Amino acid sequence: MHEMSLCEGMLRIIEDQARLHDFSRVRSVRLEIGALAAVDPEAMRFCFDAVTRGSVAEGARLDLLVPPGTAWCHHCGQTVEIAGRQDPCPLCDGFRLEVTGGAGMRIVDLEVD
Fold it and tell me: Is residue 74 a contact partner of residue 98, using CB atoms and an 8 Å limit?
């Protein structure tokens, strides 16, 4: 389950920010996980709760934003929304797609005390 290591990395970022900006508690974390990022949102929630125990983020709410996957089709020259990396272009059924969005993960913001 790579979600555990992703949450551990998030916690390191959060703790670094706590030291840098002198806050002692995180109330919520808004996390953007693209639809093509190969991350299970429920596994992220479970791992986040486990990883943050005893930290500044213990008990924090994890709000997940899931932007759609987008790709540029080399065949028809259009930017299209896709649900999976292996999907064909919904406009022309071509398979020469270049992913342009929805593949990353980032912390959008923190609500802190």
Answer: yes
Taking only the tens place, the pLDDT of each residue in 34-55 is 999 999 999 999 999 999 999 9
What CATH architecture applies to the domain 2-112? 2-Layer Sandwich (3.30)
Q: Is 103 in a helix, a strand, or coil?
A: coil
Closest listed residue to residue 43, CA positions, set 68, 62, 27: 62
**Antiparallel, parallel or unpaired: β 61-65 and 26-33:** parallel
81 Rama class: left (phi>0) / alpha (psi -120 to 50) / beta: beta
| Residues recorded for the chain | 113
pTM score, two decimals? 0.88
- Sorted by where each begins, the domain ranges of the chain are 2-112
Contact between 113 and 99 under an 8 Å Cβ cutoff? The reply is no
